[in-house]
């Protein structure tokens, strides 16, 4: 049986989604929990919809795996959550759904959505530590909104691509980039079929420069057209980024 799972996790004390040799990962926690459901305790590989980085969180990551056993969805969800708690994993299974073998969490996805949270106030945060990027300087949200319009659509995003990015092409289509204020937070909602490595965080880091007045909105257009990572702003911290949705 092939199962699709929807997952929530806190990436703060992990090395990201992908299994690593030198520290805990979300994939490792999930595969270790799944091992307890295997009669011979063999590793059951799991495929995620996206490889989030160290420190990045997920509201609704999606993954799939195969089991020889046929288990009711709710029983499998509860069993996995039990074993995850035993592992002290910062991970929870929200939903389990049996799917066809043609389903692939990564390659069947039609789009992905991220949100980025900036805490924009003078006082630092205690309760939102490792959940937001604290920026004490007041940001001009209208200027950032204006700058964001240059990034929508089909472009070469080389200026916002990490040096270690393994994507074959820097050309992506950004379907949505909404920026709005919610009390003392500034929220970025970004949607595309797929993203380059660090693309969202590099975009946010550059738009933050616009918000503080270091560069003009029009400068973002020039940065995009430069196709040079050195032309753009810094990479925003991982702690403010959340994989919020994957759709099929």
Please characterize this protein's 3D structure.
About 20% of the residues lie in helices and about 30% in strands. A hairpin with a 2-residue loop joins strand 8 and strand 9. It has helices at about 25-35, 75-85, 140-150, 200-210, 215-225, and strands at about 1-10, 45-50, 55-65, 90-100, 110-120, 135, 155, 170-180, 185-190, 240-245. The mean pLDDT is about 95. Helix 3 (about 140-150) packs parallel to helix 5. The radius of gyration is 19 Å and the shape is globular. The longest helix is centred in the first third of the chain and has 14 residues, at about 75-85. Strands 1, 2, 3, 4, 5, 6, 7, 8, 9 and 10 form a ten-stranded mixed β-sheet that branches.
Q: How many beta-strand elements? A: 10
Summarize the main sheet. 10 strands, mixed
Strand content: 25-35%
| Helix content estimate | 10-25%
User: What low-confidence regions span 5 or more consecutive residues with pLDDT below 50?
Assistant: none
Shape: globular
Radius of gyration: 19 Å
